[in-house]
Amino acid sequence: MSDENDGYDAVREQYPAILTTAQVAELLDLNVRTVLNMAGDGRLPASRLEGSRKFHFSRDQIIDTLKANVVVPSAPATKNATKG
Q1: E-strand spans in 1-84?
Q2: Which uninterrupted H or E stretch holds 33?
Q3: Do residues 35 and 49 lie in contact, with contact meaning Cβ atoms separated by under 8 Å?
Q4: Contact 48, 56 (CB under 8 A)
Q5: Selecting from 2.60.120.650, 2.40.50.100, 3.30.420.40, 1.10.1660.10, what CATH number does the domain 9-68 have?
Q6: C-alpha closest to that of 6 among 49, 56, 68, 58
Q7: What is the pLDDT of residue 78?
Q8: Which of 43, 49, 55, 56 could form a disulfide with 38 if both were Cys (CB 3.0 to 4.6 A apart)?
Q9: 7-20 pLDDT, tens digit each
Q10: What is the pTM of this model?
């Protein structure tokens, strides 16, 4: 379940609950082909009706995916103080 106080209110207001591939591409600033590939291999949660080639995306699942894949910067590399 999505947390309504997570900072994604603007996304929830701008996009409907069920998104098209084009809407997901716009939301994530990706190419439509990239979204299709990511849905096809499971990197993005999507549904597809039997016999259909069209993906449907839950807006809240896309938001949850973004929140689950936050990049945490690694610590900067330190130089070795001793030289051999």
Answers
A1: 18-19, 47-48, 55-58
A2: helix 32-40
A3: no
A4: yes
A5: 1.10.1660.10
A6: 68
A7: 77
A8: 43
A9: 999 999 999 999 99
A10: 0.80
Q: Find residue 18's DSSP bridge partners.
A: 58
At 19-75, the pLDDT tens digits run: 999 999 999 999 999 999 999 999 999 999 999 999 999 999 999 999 999 999 988
Tokens of 81: 């103080």
Please enumerate in sequence order all residues whose Cβ is within 8 A of that of 16, keeping only pairs 6 or more positions apart, or say none.
Answer: 23, 59
Q: Which residue has the tokens 């701008």?
A: 14
Structure-block tokens of residue 27: 């939301």
Q: State how far the alpha carbon of 71 is from the alpha carbons of 10, 40, 66, 67, in Å.
A: 21, 23, 10, 10
Place of tokens 């990706």: 30
For tokens 């603007």, the residue is 10
Other Cβ atoms within 10 Å of 24 Cβ, number = 24
